[in-house]
Amino acid sequence: MLATTVARMHLIASTDACYEQSGNLCRWVYDRTDGNETLANLTDWFIDKPVRIVLIVIVAMVLTRLARRWVKNVVERILSPEVTPTERLERIGIDVPEALEAAPSERRSARAHSVSVLLTSTLIVSIWVIAGMLILGTVGIDLAPLIAGAGIAGIALGFGAQTLVRDCIAGLFMMLEDQYGIGDIVDTGEATGVVEDISLRTTVLRGIDGTVWHVPNGVVQRIGNKSQLWSVALLDIDVAYGTDIERAKAALLETATEVCHSERFAEVVLLDPEVLGVEALAADGVTLRVTTRVRPGSQWELQRAIREAIKARFDADGIEIPFPQRTVWMRSDGAEPE
Questions:
Q1: Which value, to the nearest 10 degrees, does the dihedral of the CA atoms of residues 56, 57, 58, 60 take?
Q2: What's the rounded Cα separation, in Å, for the pair 327 and 218?
Q3: Which has more confidence, 48 or 144?
Q4: In 3D, which of 299, 286, 302 has the Cα closest to residue 236?
Q5: Domains of the chain and CATH, by start
Q6: How many angstroms separate the CA atoms of 266 and 286, rounded?
Q7: What tens digit of pLDDT does each residue of 150-174 get?
Q8: Cα–Cα distance measured from residue 325 to residue 306, given in angstroms and rounded to the nearest whole number
Q9: Structure confidence by residue, pLDDT tens digits, 189-234
Q10: CA-to-CA distance for 244 and 298, rounded, in angstroms?
């Protein structure tokens, strides 16, 4: 009896993984067949290991489906603020045009979709990497050298790809915070243009001259978005010092209002124009400022149209648009030039 027990313990301690794992199917078959090693090994390779692999794959698939639903719901909840941008502006005393109060939420939905796809892909890759490691361990491959090598490679990659990691983290927060989106006109400091594409690492802008700028997200220190909610058409118009300011202001307001109410611009103008008054006393004339709120991206076309109309109106009313003027003082002290 003692010799049989010793022999069985020696057989369990062999190199075959079947005998190193207590409680598995291989050991169970071995114990029930009075030490039939061949049948135990066949059971381990053709029943036990395949069943484990199938279970790992099934669990990974279930976790994948749960990740898709969970991440999408969480992201939509995070990106659905309790206070909308228009309500926040109204709370601090900024009037919001009625046309913007019922603005559609397509932008927020598109942003939620982009972020959820990104996070879901990352989570799914992690799930299947872990599942792959478990499968390798099931078939008897020693994972310790593999994990150690991956750790060393990860450290080396981390040191060498710090800029890449910074760009990706900055891109993720840029999407979460909705700093800008595709179609917005933004100023990144180094480049200004329309956003054509956004990825986790870079933002692609097209300048007004057609230049395509690829800006890494990690190098952007500030963002000026000219397309959120509304834009402002701002014009500084100079008149001569001898001009009647009230008459010039009335002409400016009437001309700007006519242009804004025209069929060409009626749909993009959110508020009637306003003459703010004297903006500066320049060297050559008095600067008057005119502003009006418009839909994002339409301010430049409106500004050009108003300038053209103001030029015609000033010419018709005899209001002088100043030109550079200088007063030259001549001094004669009788000294001979050297």
A1: 90
A2: 52
A3: 144
A4: 286
A5: 1-160 (no CATH), 180-225 (2.30.30.60), 231-317 (3.30.70.100)
A6: 30
A7: 777 767 666 666 777 788 888 888 8
A8: 26
A9: 878 888 888 887 888 999 888 899 999 988 888 888 888 778 889 9
A10: 31
